[in-house]
Amino acid sequence: MSIPKTMKAAILVEQHKPLVVDEVELPSSLDVGQVLVKVHYSGICGSQIGEIDGAKGEDKFLPHLLGHEASGSVVATGPGVKHVKEGDTVVMHWRKGLGIEGAPPQYRWRGQKLNAGWIATFNEYAIVAENRLTSIPTDSNLQVAALFGCAVTTGFGVIENNAKVRIGESVVVFGAGGVGLNIVQAAALVGAYPVIAVDVFDNRLALAKEMGATHCINAKTQDAQKAIEAIVGNQGLDVFIDNTGQPTIMELGYQITKAQGRVTLVGVPRKGNNIGIFSLPLHFGKVLSGSHGGESVPHEDIPRYQNLFNAGRIKLNELLTEVLPLDDINTAIDHMRSGQASGRCLIRMD
Fold first, then answer.
1. Confidence band (pLDDT; 50, 70, 90) for 90?
2. Which residues lie across from 90 on neighbouring strands?
3. Most exposed: 62, 86, 111, 128, by fewest CB within 10 Å?
4. Cα–Cα dist 205/20, whole Å
5. How many Cα neighbours within 13 Å face the side chain of 242?
6. For 6-149+316-348, CATH number?
7. What 8-state DSSP symbol labels residue 115?
8. Confidence tier at 1 by pLDDT (50, 70, 90)
């Protein structure tokens, strides 16, 4: 199949404004390491909301495309590509996997250059670097497959690779969105106890309970610190994982973990929102670290997690709160902001 001349895409034109859904021109050929993918379902991650809101400051690449987790089918491959082939069903992910890191594609919109990185998924088609794709069985659930691009691999990777949770350790997961719910699920899977989910929306806490949380705390109606301390008792808290990016919550986690406890920061604070800590405990065993996508290795981790899903060992269909067409992407984003969406919102391209 030849490359389509145009496709529909959601474009970030201006920060703090809704995305613009419009027709975009594709380049006429594929470069080395590039793959043309027909996108089926794309997830919406908190990272994209951060980009829209300017969490990291001024965006110097506007206008540009967004999205970093999706399922799709390979339509064509460029020179040098060997790890995926035409007809493959793939997970699209932002962490690097096997293959070439081809150059970002040269899209155009309304006569001007439209920026995109090595992956963008809020679009009907995508020209993606080979190393942002992992092949999966053709009979895979395409909605669930989209979650393997970020939500699942990040959530499970935080427990496996960052926090390194051991059987019987106590874990607090502060922020029970798409990634947080998978952190809860992974903590339960490795035998953590208690697994405490904290959020400000009861619907998300109810889903966290379904994912394996042993205790749920609504930080809007309860004193989260007192509630956590009452649950873990004198033994103290082993692991605190923050998904909110709020400095006060990061500081809370550092304060309430035990002397040799671990604090893992998944959420990204807005630029200039710094934290203040007394660093002495770091010299005596306390650990404060960040997470970069759970340090996941897509081509190794996705097959492992998919086997767990196929065996009924993990829940992923339950995380799919809403599936909307691309034209309604701003509605989906609003539902995530407001907490109306308890799990992951998917955008349907077909």
1. very high
2. 72, 135
3. 111
4. 32
5. 25
6. 3.90.180.10
7. B
8. low
Mean pLDDT of 235-256: 96
Read off the tokens for 332: 């989906």
Q: Where are the alpha helices (DSSP H) in the chain?
A: 46-53, 142-147, 151-157, 178-189, 202-211, 224-232, 247-256, 298-310, 329-338
| pLDDT reading at 271 higher than 90 | no
Copy the structure tokens of residue 98.
């096997």
The single residue listed with the structure tokens 């671990």 is 262
The amino acid at 18: P
The 10 Å CB-count burial string (b at 16+, else e) for 54-63 is ebeeeeeeeb
pTM of the model: 0.95
Task: Annotate 15-78 with DSSP letters as a single string.
Answer: TTSPPEEEEEEPPSS--TTEEEEEEEEEE--HHHHHHHHTTTS--TT-SEE---EEEEEEEEE-
Residues of the chain with CATH 3.40.50.720: 154-293
Q: What mean pLDDT comes out for the span 334-338?
A: 93
Q: Would you say domain 154-293 falls under CATH 3.60.15.10? A: no
